[in-house]
Design brief:
By secondary structure, the chain is an alpha+beta fold. Helices cover 22% and strands 31% of the residues.
């Protein structure tokens, strides 16, 4: 058996998310269908991050095994041929060690969230960023975001659909960059709770709009989802990179 690793970019707007589901078309299903056409083998692929409906990716990673060896450039180009015209592109393909697993071998995941802070609605960036119409206190967002760093019980920052038994997570970094009306929030950790990044972003935005008077630390200590802010829209979130 040959173990393959691929890096994938996609626009998640019209997909139900990464994971194969019965209620709509997923990224995983689309790639598996392309693999059948390319290799004549029915294959299950494993993704590094289970992005939700509407979430995008620059650097999603997936792994799968085939019984026959296929040149990596054929894997890349062949999958892209069969994936057209869907907004999914395989950026790279390589053969990896047998023990490599896209999800379980990952050491760190990087997510990026894009906000555009302006009054006019989005046109070119529609479905690519969250348009926040009220002026945001960026410096407050930056100072409050530092409270997420380190190991914390983030029960207040996970959705009601989260199936994780443990809500303790370690955030390695949070960066907030802004230029003119564009704001980018980058978060990295080994793993995340369901909707964690989107709730973190929504809370920072609510604090920056003075809709929430509590600090991030207060909310963390409450361990209560109702204390945190809104869940930011899926279309502003990107799976940026997986570190192995």
């Amino acid at each position: 058996m040959y173990n393959y690793k691929i890096v994938i970019e996609y626009d998640g707007t019209n997909f139900v998310g990464w994971q194969q589901q019965v209620n709509g078309h997923s990224i995983q299903a689309a790639i598996q269908q392309a693999l059948v056409k390319l290799s004549s083998e029915k294959v299950t692929i494993f993704g590094a991050g289970r992005t939700d409906a509407g979430v995008h990716a620059y650097g999603q990673v997936a792994s799968f095994t085939l019984s026959k060896k296929i040149d990596t450039y054929v894997i890349r180009d062949g999958l892209n041929q069969y994936l057209r015209p869907q907004p999914i592109a395989v950026q790279n393909a390589e053969i990896v060690d047998d023990d490599f697993h896209a999800r379980f071998s990952a050491k760190k995941r990087w997510y990026e969230y894009k906000i555009i802070n302006r009054r006019p609605p989005l046109t070119i960036d529609a479905n690519r960023a969250w348009c926040v119409y009220k002026n945001l206190d960026i410096e407050k967002m930056k100072s409050e975001s530092s409270s997420f760093l380190g190991k914390n019980d983030l029960n207040a920052f996970r959705s009601s659909h989260c199936q994780s038994k443990n809500s303790i997570k370690t955030i390695d970094s949070v960066f907030i960059k802004n230029k003119d009306e564009h704001i980018i929030i980058e978060v990295s950790a080994k793993s995340f709770l369901h909707s964690q990044v989107r709730i973190m972003v929504g809370t920072l935005v609510d604090i920056a709009k003075s809709n929430i008077n509590k600090t991030v630390l207060d909310i963390i200590n409450s361990k209560n989802r109702e204390s945190a802010g809104q869940t930011a829209p899926a279309h502003g979130l990107y799976l940026k990179e997986i570190e192995y």
